[in-house]
Design goal:
CATH architecture: Orthogonal Bundle
Oligomer: single chain
Number of helices: 4
Shape: globular
Order of helices and strands: HHHH
Strand content: under 5%
Largest sheet: none
CATH superfamily: MazG-like
Structural class: mainly alpha
Mean pLDDT: 93
Distance between the termini: 33 Å
Number of strands: 0
Low-confidence stretches: none
CATH topology: Helix Hairpins
């Protein structure tokens, strides 16, 4: 039997339980923004290596786009948790915005 998929709410609770183990808790918003920027930079490095014009040097360790995306997600969830943001609700609002604002922006598939 396959593993059940996690909801965004599940992910937020899992991250919160992890962070709750530590005395200092979540970082401040500015520190989290810096951490998010770092993680996006690491993701950019992996994407540039895989698809761009700047491959890694021979002495650089191999990386993983999937792991870098997961690191970005972790920091985003930490950021949302620290600010009391329900990401499922925020995501639903964003999708509604994209569906309405961008409904006619690009050609659609004729399926």
């Amino acid at each position: 039997m396959g593993e059940q998929m996690k909801t965004i709410c599940d992910v937020q609770r899992e991250v919160d339980a992890l962070i709750a183990q530590y005395k200092d808790g979540y970082f401040t918003p500015l520190v989290m923004l810096a951490r998010l920027t770092e993680e996006v930079g690491e993701l950019a490095r992996e994407v540039n290596d895989a698809f761009g014009q700047k491959p890694k040097r021979a002495d650089e360790p191999p990386g993983s786009i999937a792991m870098e995306l997961a690191d970005v997600l972790f920091v985003v969830v930490c950021f949302a948790n620290a600010l009391g943001i329900d990401l499922e609700h925020a995501f639903d609002q964003a999708m509604n915005k994209f569906r309405t604002r961008d409904a006619h922006r690009w050609p659609r598939n004729d399926r």
